[in-house]
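Q: Got a minute? One more chain.
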Amino acid sequence: MSTPSTAPSWRHCAHGADATSDPVGCRGVHVAGHTACLAHLADADRDAYLANLTPGASIDHRGTTFTDSLLTTLLDALQDPETGEARLGTAMFWQAIFEGSAGFNSVTFEGDAVFREATFEGYTTFESAIFEHTAMFDSATFEGDAVFWGAAFRGETFFQSCTFAGGFAAFGETSFGQVAIFRHAAFKSDVGFREATFKGYAQFGGATFENDVVFWGTTFEDDASFWSATFVKADQFGPAVCAGQVVLSGAVFGGPVTLSFAARRLECRRTRWSQTAEIRLRFATVDFAHAVFEYPLTIAAEPSPFVLSDGRPLAENRLPSTYDLGVRVASLRGVDAAHLVLADLDLSGCLFAGTVHLDQLRLEGACTFDTAPPAVHWRRWSPVRFTARRVLAEEHHWRASQPGAVRGWNVAVLGAGRAGPLQLAPVYRALRKAFEDGKHEPGAADFYYGEMEMRRHADDIPRSERGLLTAYWALSGYGLRASRALAWLGAAMLLTIVLLMAFGLAQEPPKQTATGTVPAGGGKVTFEIDKDDPQNPTGNRFTGERFEKALNVTINSVVFRSSDQDLTTAGTYIEMTSRLTEPVLLGLAVLAVRNRVKR
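A: Always. Here it is, folded:
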């Protein structure tokens, strides 16, 4: 333990001061009416001071060095005869040194308890202690085990920049009534918050956990922040409940770890995972933007309440009943998804633009995406209906921001930014490949549709290509909408039938005429057979007989066969056009059906 070389701000004992080796000497504050601290006070003066203490009295022993016996004597003097436990008012132990064991079991601190920069050299216990007001342990050092089991911190609690260097630090079943600050604390030993309750904001920002961490059954009734914390060996975090959000942004996990949370939101922006990790969640929305992981990482929804090691279910009554049980992903931007597995998650609001190796993303279970607006909407005077399909949140935002956008597209996509067709086309392409690799062809078809939509609306394609894509979309939904292709096929067949009845079928079957000359002396007769040109129809053209003939021609055209009907010149061209277009439409319909049903 290093002793500060500068004199404290209070009038201090200076016992043992030496101009050469220790110019400050004892740093203990003067006991009122004396010129020495409690440790160096004459026995008679110390006895007199302790005799005048009453339960609930305020004490000031800043910088004082306590042995086991001196601390016990002090607490005995403050003992409440009715309860048998010590009661202190404001307790000032700033920079105090506890050389042996420090036992504050069941002590009640009715005023502020100040242990800033205190040093606990041995076993320290505050088991079942009660802190009625502010408890300050900032920059304190616990060189031995530290036990706060069952303690109640009813005011603000500060363990900022504390060092726990003993075998373990136990905060099991501890209650923190207001803000609890552990910012930049160094837990060099095992630390446990088993079934602890944080009723106010919990701040562990920048803390270092070098060994095992136990948040088993812990309840956070407000937000819990672990920003930039370092977990060197922790293999389990939770299961825990948080009514607010858990912030792990910037945190570093050095070993394999499993996180289990039932929370409103989980922030994991720019976290770093150096080994395999599994994150199991309930209720939460998780933001994983710019996280870095080098080994497989799984984010999964937990369908049932977490079960504690003793078989009890984790109580979730602190979570509002209005919370959605499903787990949602807010963003995967900047993530290398090559080792990422998502299971049973709601991806309807997830931002994918900027994700690396998205084609290697593994989707397990029932992962859902947003969909296009289902109902018919009106744009000015024309009805607009969007094809039912999986849609990314960024496309929702882009379409809602376009001039003349119809209702139903969600513009409130936080962080969607300026992602447009150019940025979204490769995202859809990568997700399509991910679905194809997972043998989920119908899902892949939806993302192929989205990719083609983004290509059609992109600004960097030639007008001819845009026209071709528009025709492909209009005729068959990019080869994915059989109903659209069949509708066009039906319309084309109907038009062909009408045109054939009106102009294509001859009025009457052309007559054949055979002419020849019989040689005078007999012999072989040669005939020339001629056929009249088909005559354009006149009179009533729409009869049952003509319909049957036109239908025969049209059906044969669909399967690319000739009907051998007698047609006019116009009918010949009508049949040629039909034999060219209708088989294509039939092929698009068959292709669409195959794309939707194959596995």
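A: Residues 569-597 form the longest helix (29 residues).
Q: Perfect, thanks.
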